[in-house]
Amino acid sequence: MKMKKSLLALCLSAGLLASVPGISLADINIVPQDVSAAPSIPESALQNLVWTPVTQNKLHTTNLATGGQSLGVADIIGPVAAYSVPAGIGELTITLTSVVEKDTVFAPNVLVLDQNLRPAAYFPSSFFAYQEPGVMSDNRLEGTFKLTPALGQQKLYLLVFTTSKDAQQTTKMIDPAKAYAKGNGNAIPDIPDPIASHGTTGTLKLRVKTSSGSSILVGPLFGSSGPDPVTVGNTAAPATAYAAPVAATATAPVAAPAPAAKKEPVLSDTESYFNQAIKDAVAKGDVDKALKLLDEAERLGSTSARKTFISSVKGKG
């Protein structure tokens, strides 16, 4: 029996490591079931939160500045996000993204709670690695993890927050011109990378999917006769689980959408890079490439790229 339990723990741990981005594993050594590093949160504080139901395969976006909640716990600063995840749909693959907005990003921590609001796993901010922007994505901090609800679990709860320690740190990003050059196989320009400070608010994106690989077991392990490295809870589930209040339905007043933020002017080094690249492309007769460069430059806020393109095509570049 002891050997079987050890083997089970090994398999579940291996499944977790396979789901974590390589950049995270290179920098940290996380044992999610060790919740001793997580802030201590009174159960009464957790019960006062309104938990937002999460639908499988649907992207849930939370603006913490307008949709966050106050927790009032030491070391946790700013608003928090609280999600309720159904536990009867099999193994869960959860991806949490924190979007960089201008030069600020929310560094998320995730505390996973079982159906009775008992801490089950903890993913600190170091788990969520910086990801470069892509065609359909922005600069961001992102992490993916898997959870397996144990037999008898009805819901799992995810509490997302940041700490005073996180707020003192920063994230080094990649300049858009470097990212574009890298993605297109061009020479990477020698320009400085921007730095994002860690703030107390931001935009979170959460997606929950089901999968069949191994992962963290949340809740009691059926048939277990003792503690196990990846088992959370007692051997018998209580008859009545905690019933969390959920977010208001569509009948509640809906806040007016915030006006779109003005695009910040592009850095002079970045503007110069795109202008020169447009001139070079036109000089080589590659107008399609020049147009793509123009579109990318204007998306980043360039005000001179179009003029450069037109004058280059007319032979005045």
Q: Summarize the amount of helix as a percent range.
A: 25-40%
Taken in chain order, the helices and strands follow as HHHEEHEEEEEEEEHEHEEEHHH
| Major β-sheet annotation | 6 strands, mixed
Radius of gyration: 23 Å
Number of alpha- plus pi-helical segments: 9
Question: Which second-level CATH architecture of the largest domain applies?
Answer: Sandwich
Task: Enumerate the spans where pLDDT stays under 50 for 5 or more consecutive residues.
Answer: 1-28, 222-237, 249-262
Mean pLDDT: 79
Secondary structure tally: strands: 14
**What would CATH call the class of the largest domain?**
Mainly Beta
Q: Count structural domains.
A: 2
* Large-scale geometry: elongated
Structure description:
The protein has 9 helices and 14 strands. By secondary structure, it is an alpha+beta fold. Strands 2, 4, 8, 9, 13 and 14 form a 6-stranded mixed β-sheet that branches. α7 (about 270-285) runs antiparallel to α8 (about 285-300), α7 packs parallel to α9 and α8 packs antiparallel against α9 (about 305-315). It is elongated. Mean pLDDT is about 80; it is low at about 1-30, about 220-235 and about 250-260.
